[in-house]
Amino acid sequence: MLTIDHLVKRRGAHEILSGISFQARPGRVTGFLGPNGAGKSSTLRILLGLDRATSGSALINGKPFAQLANPLMTVGAAFDGSGAHGMRTGRAHLRWIARAAGLPRSRVEEVLDMVGLTYAAGKRVGSYSLGMGRRLALAAALLGDPPILVLDEPVNGLDPEGIRWIRTFLRERAEFGNTVLLSSHLMGELAETVDDVVIIKRGKIVADGALEEIIGTHSTLEDAFFALTAERAGDTG
Amino acid sequence: MKAFKAELSKLFSLPYIWLALLLGAFAPALFAALDNFAEKKDIIAGISTRLSEVGYIGLAFGVQGVIIVGVLAVSSEYVRESNENGGGQQLTTSLSVVPSRLSFMLAKGGAVTIISILLCVVAIFTTLTVTRLILGEYAPTFDWSKLLGVACYWVLTALLASGLTFITKSGVIPLTVLMINSSVVSLSVVLSKVTKLAYYLPDRAGIDMFMSMSDSVHTPLAGGFVMAAWAAVFFMIAAIVFHRRDVAA
């Protein structure tokens, strides 16, 4: 269970998050949607202890990330790009992570196979395409087989086949009782994947509920998104 | 311990590190060889005033290898992927695996220390071998306490480099400043002509651990203490800055 409670983040005079609250529950894929710059990545970064909140809390199973005993076995996260140094091979990147978490080397080969990257594991990450880098980041997140996944824009850079694969993969994770929180600015790509939807705009939550509730009388999630953000943020266009 | 092993694994899987290790292992011997050839005549004639520096001067100048190790260990975390590739950086992954920033820094410092010690042992071996080959029976005997001083100098230099890079988030400034300072123009040597305070700069004080120069002001122990204090202060500032700073900042 992921619990974001009255989270505020200011950088200088700029308020990035204005007291947002929502939850991501086990057995559900929660889509955290919003336009670029709305505060999605900041929220996920605070949840993973990478950035500091000005006030409020972001907890994983009731604890801040820094207090988790086995972080990699509790929550797997993927942020921008591959999250790896370009001069290292994909396999070497996963191996140091496995070593840090006390996992066997064989697990590295398993996750490489899961994300379909075994063929490029011996190549330097710097030679990877964006899609390959994203697969490597996902492989790193899956190393500890964590019950919680936090993925920032996971479909960015993936080809249609990759997008389809990740949709199926995330649905399966949720069906086995895992918690999945993913952010995206691509509404269309997510409608078929998510159970719950949280919509953020300019640092404020403008909608939070089950997919059907959010879509409501609108024909698509995308239509609902534009309608909701226009109403709540006072936009007219 | 797992974080420490992961840091070693990270360092040894970076191709540049092998270049740094090669430099660290053989550059001191090369510096020493050049110095030995220049001084050989005077040493044989018994009129050399620099017998106490023979060999050690190579180990003082040849510290670049561990400077690169210390800088790379930290700067590699901050290298950003191109925007086309998502603009990510390794630090995000590192802190997702080792959430305690202090543990992360200590693991990195530990890995840099161990590599610096091992590299120094190899450099001492190559430098002493070269000195004995060139000077033969005229080669001075090397004192264990001074060689220990060399190892301390190398480790503290590497830790200073790491601490500085944590503060700057990029390897460019620390690498440029420390490499030039240790090989081309030593700021502390230049400043020592102006003020006595320059003897308390880390490199100048640290050298007193193994070289008795004509203008030395510290005992080996005091020199080591001054340099260790610098490294500790830099690492503390780095720890505070690193602890407070957002990764996204």
How would you explain this protein's 3D organization?
The complex is a heterodimer of chains A (237) and B (249). Chain A is α/β, with parallel strands linked by helices and 237 residues long. Chain A has one domain (2-233): Rossmann fold (3-Layer(aba) Sandwich), CATH 3.40.50.300. Chain A has helices at 40-47, 71-74, 90-101, 105-114, 130-142, 160-175, 187-190, 211-215, 221-233; strands at 2-11, 14-24, 29-33, 55-60, 75-78, 148-152, 179-184, 196-201, 204-210. In chain A, a hairpin with a 2-residue loop joins strand 1 and strand 2 (14-24). Chain A is globular, with a radius of gyration of 18 Å. Chain B has one domain. Chain B has eleven helices and no strands. The longest helix of chain B is centred in the middle third of the chain and has 35 residues, at 101-135. Chain B starts with a helix and ends in a 5-residue tail after the last helix. The model of chain B has no long low-confidence stretch (mean pLDDT 89). The interface between A and B is large, with 44 and 33 residues. Chain A: Residues 2-227 form the ABC transporter domain. Chain A: Belongs to the ABC transporter superfamily.
Layout: helices, strands, pairs:
The complex is a heterodimer of chains A (237) and B (249).
Chain A: E1 2-11, E2 14-24, E3 29-33, H1 40-47, E4 55-60, H2 71-74, E5 75-78, H3 90-101, H4 105-114, H5 130-142, E6 148-152, H6 160-175, E7 179-184, H7 187-190, E8 196-201, E9 204-210, H8 211-215, H9 221-233
Parallel strand pairs in A: 3-7, 3-8, 5-6, 6-7
Antiparallel strand pairs in A: 1-2, 1-4, 8-9
Chain B: H1 2-12, H2 15-45, H3 56-61, H4 64-78, H5 90-97, H6 101-135, H7 144-168, H8 172-183, H9 187-192, H10 202-207, H11 220-244
